[in-house]
């Protein structure tokens, strides 16, 4: 009888899963969610939501999304024996429905006063139906161990799958995402850290940002006559779009791509920033054009606020690299090899990423990997990696973890980055500011690195098996709004089209799509309400 297993990667921006034949390891189906089911754009938002709305509610949203995703795989779920899950400790704890307050508060005294006891996060095997997963009565769920409270299976995956630990020279590996796990390998030691970069470099919280889908601008290049846009077509292939004047958006020459551009992906944002900095049109966060915007094809543009958002993400990444180097007694000239993993790390133009500061400065060789988290989940599901291996690995990493939230070097460098990206400080002042903190200088980037892209797609076998995209992974949350006069201002203000207001029995009710809502980092609807009566937090899952 055929036996199946499922590999599930729970990322901050969504879930990805693959069904595998347990005996042969063959990939049978792939499904991904377009968004994360919990309101919010980053892990802090998700934890915030869980703490305010209740961990049960947050867990319910995640399990519901997993059930919808597994159902979309089109396999007989009753024949699934193992579900292996990968993700950071926040996501895995929310999925497993265990205590998360110890992850949210770093202070021991605070935890003690709240009576919070940290649950063991040393790996677990639990019954699938006990977690609420439907249709797989005989399956177990394997949860890998955490390394520290902020990094876990994602970091283990990044190191195990890329083989960076075998490197004979210092190298830096980063799993690019909303929460960027990173590790410096030097002299047999592994220094780890995790930077909350936010979703801007994935195209979210960007005015015209969108996922990689038909109509998305995925790359931009400077040409003699203007900027050439590359747009994703209906077959998900990136084709040559129009050449435009970036100051006005005027079309210089039409491309071969006939689909109208509708937005821009994270890779497109990185490319546009790189072109903007190279051509001198961007002086962060200001854009040197008549209306203060960079114009691409068909009205898609980059605003100064977008530069600010992307800059904060780049700043967090660069502050993270430099902090790890400083901890290890090294600096940028000591690391010539950089690994980029995760979907963003694979698809982005590595040279442009290096130019804008997403890669350790001075890298001469860049290796781009795909999604290492799902690869680790696959290996666990197929029994190629066992719990003892994972625990040994986690133990090794624990010794040299750097917690950026409390690291003074990180705070100092982030202050420099913030000044650069958000306050108009020119790059020429960067090293002067490093002097203030007694930190070494950043040399100017010279020469182009060699780039080796290991895989064509971030999901294993994506070229063989069609990827199903689940656009409605979330659940509707409903709440009564006392005092609402139904003016509609909140609905109009919502940038994600996540909110609606309806009258029932003389009362006004709000309905929010959990996966569309940007959560605590947004709250624009609440702020715009003229009577201050809208509060999303008490909204409950619509039964
Ligand atoms: S405006 Fe309100 S409902 Fe819309 S995304 Fe923001 S927080 Fe969510
Ligand atoms: S803005 Fe306030 S009063 Fe107006 S519809 Fe929304 S909740 Fe009601």
Summarize model confidence as the mean pLDDT.
90
Would you tell me the structural class of the helices and strands? alpha/beta
Shape: globular
- Quote the beta fraction: 15-25%
Unique ligands: iron/sulfur cluster
Total number of distinct structural domains: 4
Keywords:
543 residues; alpha/beta; Nucleotidyltransferase, domain 5; 4 domains; 7-stranded mixed beta sheet; 6-stranded mixed beta sheet; binds iron/sulfur cluster
Structural features, described:
By secondary structure, the protein is α/β, with parallel strands linked by helices. The protein folds into four domains: 4-149, 2-Layer Sandwich (Nucleotidyltransferase, domain 5); 154-197 and 308-376 and 386-453, no CATH class; 208-302, no CATH class; 476-541, Alpha-Beta Plaits, CATH 3.30.70. It contains 17 helices and 26 strands. The strands form six sheets. Strands 5-6-4-1-2-3-22 form a seven-stranded mixed beta sheet, with helices on both faces. A six-stranded mixed beta sheet has the order 9-8-7-19-20-21, sandwiched between helices. A five-stranded mixed beta sheet has the order 13-12-11-10-14. α1 (43-53) crosses α2 and α9 (304-327) packs antiparallel against α14. The two termini are 37 Å apart. The site of one iron/sulfur cluster (SF4) has 14 residues, from α16.
């Amino acid at each position: 009888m055929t036996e199946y297993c499922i590999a599930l990667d729970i990322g901050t921006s969504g879930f990805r899963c693959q069904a595998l034949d347990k005996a042969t390891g063959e990939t049978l189906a792939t499904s991904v969610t377009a968004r994360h089911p919990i309101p919010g754009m980053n892990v802090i938002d998700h934890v915030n939501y869980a703490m305010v709305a209740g961990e049960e509610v947050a867990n319910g949203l995640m399990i519901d999304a997993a059930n919808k995703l597994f159902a979309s795989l089109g396999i007989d779920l009753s024949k699934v024996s193992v579900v292996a899950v990968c993700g950071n400790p926040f996501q895995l704890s929310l999925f497993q429905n265990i205590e998360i307050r110890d992850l949210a508060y770093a202070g021991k005294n605070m935890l003690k006063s709240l009576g919070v006891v940290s649950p063991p996060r040393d790996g677990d095997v639990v019954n699938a139906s006990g977690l609420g997963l439907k249709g797989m009565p005989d399956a177990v769920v394997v949860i890998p161990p955490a390394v520290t409270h902020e990094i876990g299976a994602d970091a283990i995956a990044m190191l195990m799958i890329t083989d960076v630990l075998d490197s004979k020279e210092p190298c830096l590996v980063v799993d690019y995402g909303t929460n960027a796990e990173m590790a410096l390998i030097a002299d047999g030691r592994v220094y780890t850290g995790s930077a909350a970069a936010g979703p801007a470099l994935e195209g979210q919280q960007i005015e015209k940002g969108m996922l990689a889908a038909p109509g998305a601008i995925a790359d931009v290049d400077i040409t003699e006559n203007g900027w050439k846009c590359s747009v994703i077509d209906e077959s998900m292939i990136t084709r040559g779009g129009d050449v435009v004047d970036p100051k006005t958006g005027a079309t210089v020459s039409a491309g071969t791509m006939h689909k109208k551009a509708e937005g821009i992906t994270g890779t497109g944002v990185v490319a546009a920033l790189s072109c903007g900095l190279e051509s001198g049109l961007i002086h962060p966060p200001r854009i040197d054009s008549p209306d203060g915007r960079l114009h691409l094809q068909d009205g898609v543009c980059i605003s100064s606020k977008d530069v600010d958002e992307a800059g904060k993400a780049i700043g967090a990444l660069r502050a993270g690299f430099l902090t790890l180097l400083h901890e290890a007694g090294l600096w940028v000239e000591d690391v010539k090899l950089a690994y980029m993993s995760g979907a963003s790390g694979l698809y982005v133009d590595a040279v442009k990423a290096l130019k804008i500061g997403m890669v350790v400065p001075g890298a001469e060789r860049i290796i781009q990997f795909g999604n290492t988290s799902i690869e680790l989940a696959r290996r666990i599901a197929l029994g190629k990696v066992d719990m003892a291996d994972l625990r040994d690995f986690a133990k090794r990493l624990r010794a040299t973890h750097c917690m950026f939230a409390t690291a003074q070097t990180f705070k100092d460098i982030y202050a420099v980055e913030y000044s650069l990206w958000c306050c108009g400080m020119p790059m020429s002042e960067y090293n002067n500011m490093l002097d203030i903190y007694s930190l070494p200088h950043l040399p100017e980037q010279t020469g182009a690195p060699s780039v080796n892209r290991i895989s064509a797609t971030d999901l294993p076998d994506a070229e063989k098996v069609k990827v199903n995209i689940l656009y409605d992974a979330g659940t509707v949350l409903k709440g009564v709004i006392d005092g609402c006069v139904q003016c509609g201002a909140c609905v109009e203000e919502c940038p994600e089209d996540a909110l609606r207001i309806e009258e029932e029995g003389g009362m006004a009710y709000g309905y929010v799509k959990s996966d569309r809502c940007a959560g605590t980092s947004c709250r624009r609807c609440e702020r715009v309400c003229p009577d201050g009566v809208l509060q999303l937090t008490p909204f409950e899952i619509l039964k």
